[in-house]
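Observation: inputs received (chain + manganese (II) ion).
Thought: call the complex predictor directly.
Action: predict_structure
Action Input:
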Amino acid sequence: MSSIFLFFSELVRCKSIHYDSDLPTASVIIIFTNEAWTPLIRTIWSVLNRSPRRFLKEIVLVDDFSDRAELGEKLDLYIKYRLPPLVKLVRLKERHGLIRARLQGAKTSTGDVLIFLDSHCEANQLWMEPLLQRIKESRSAVLVPIIDVIDDNTLEYYHGNGRYFQVGGFTWSGHFTWIEVNEEEQRRRGSPVGPTRSPTMAGGLFAVERNYFWEVGSYDDGMDVWGGENLEMSFRVWTCGGTLETIPCSRVGHIFRSFHPYTFPGNKDTHGLNTARMAETWMDDYKRLFYVYRPELQTAEWGDVSGRKELRNRLRCRSFKWYLDNIYPQKFILDEDSVAFGRLRNNVSQPHLCFDNLQRNEKTPYNMGLYNCHNFLSSSQYMSLSKNGELRREEMCAEIPTYFSGNTEKVRMSRCHGRRGNQEWYLTQQGQLIHKVTNKCLDRADKQSMDDVVVSDCTNSWTQQWWFDHYAPL
Ligand code: UD2
Ligand code: MN
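Observation:
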C-alpha cells in the first residue's frame, strides 16, 4: 500500500514539473555490435515514440562492425522504408569497441545535446525533457537517467517502486558499484526528484552538452572494446569542473545480461587494461590501491597515456584526493582511514597465519578465514582497523553474532553499517583484538590454514596476539 502510494506520488511529482518549450535539441547515439534484432528495434522505437519531435534532432546508430546477417541489408532496408529520415546509420569498417564507436557517433551528431544509449534499452515516458532541462540550466552537468531493469529472459520492464534509486560508486579493483545516496546529498538536492549527485556512472546511458563533451576530453581513444571508460569519464568530469548527476524523473530500461554477446579480439582483458589507463591518468598515488587488487596490470601493456595526462594538465583538473574528500567522502580508503592495516598475522608458531578471505564471494556475508601469510600484501589478506574501530575490508566488516553465548564463535564478515555496535573492535598494547560488545578476543586457537577464524574468551595466550603490517603514527 505505501509503496503504491510512493510510486504514485513520485510519478505525479515528475509529471507536474514544468519543462521549457525551448529546450536544446538532442542527438541520441545508439552504438551496437552484433546486437539482437528485437532489442535494437525496441530501443529505436521507444526513442521515436517517447521523445518530443521538436527536441529530437536525430538518432545516430553506430554499427561497430557487426557480422550478424540481419544487421546488414535487412537493417539498411528497415531504416530506409520503416523509419523516419532522422534515423541515421554509420558503419565502422573495423571493430573499434564501444569507446571509439561512441566517439564516432559524437563526431557525426549535430544536436545541442548528446544522449548515449546501449542498444538494448527502452526509453520511458517523459525521459528526455528532464535531461534537456537540466543541461539548459547547467551546461557542464553530465546526466544519467534512472536505469530500470528489463528482465533478460522475459524482456519485461520492471518499474521499481518509483522512488528508491541508487547512484554510482566504485571499488578499488576498478569496478563500478551501486551505492546509497548519502544523507548530506539527500538534504542538498532538496527534493527526492531533484538532480542527485553521483560519484560515478554506470556508463551506458547518459546525456551531455555536445560542446562540453569535447571540451572535457570526450573519451580516451586508447581504450578498447569494453570497460573502464565510465570511471574514467566520472573522475574526469568531477575533477575537471563538471558535475555528474542522476535525474530521477528520467527513466530508461536496460537489459542487464550475464554475458557478452560479442568477442574480445585477442582475448584481451580490456576492462583491466582500460582501467589501468584510467588509474595511471586520474588516480594519482591512489592507484596503489588499484594495483593491490590488480598487481598483474602494473606491468601490463596498457599503452601510452601521456596525451591523457596532458589533457588533465591543460584542463587544470583537481587531484584524486580532492575527489575523494569532496565527491565521495564515504569511500573507505584502506590505508588512510585506518589506525592499522596490511596483513593481520599471528606469529605463535610456524607457519604464520594471516587473515584471508579465502577467495570467498564478498557480495554476501561470509566467514573470515585464515591462510599461510603471503610474502607480499595481496588483496585477499588486506585488512584494516578503521578509525571507527571496524575490523574490515573494503566494504565488509567483521562482526560476531549478538546471540553469541558459547566460548568460541566464528568471525562473520557483513556489509559495514558504520554504526559501531557489533562491528566495533579495539586493539590492545599486547596485540589483542577485542570485540567490544561481547568482550571476546580474536583467537588463532588450534586453527590451520584454510580454517575459519574465531573469537573466544580473552586470555594471555599468544594465540590471541595479532600484528598488522603497518600502524598509523599516533
Ligand atoms: C556497462 C554499460 C556500458 C558500458 C560498460 C563499460 C550500462 C547500462 N551499460 O556495460 O554502456 O559503459 O558498462 O564499458 O551502463 N558495444 C560495441 N562494441 C563493442 C562492445 C560493445 O559497440 O566492442 C556496444 C554494445 O552493443 C552495447 C554497448 O556497447 O550497445 C555496451 O555494451 P554492453 O551492453 O555489453 O555493456 P554493459 O551494459 O554490460
Ligand atoms: Mn548494456
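Thought: report the result.
Final Answer: The longest strand covers residues 243-255. The chain is about 25% helix and 25% strand.
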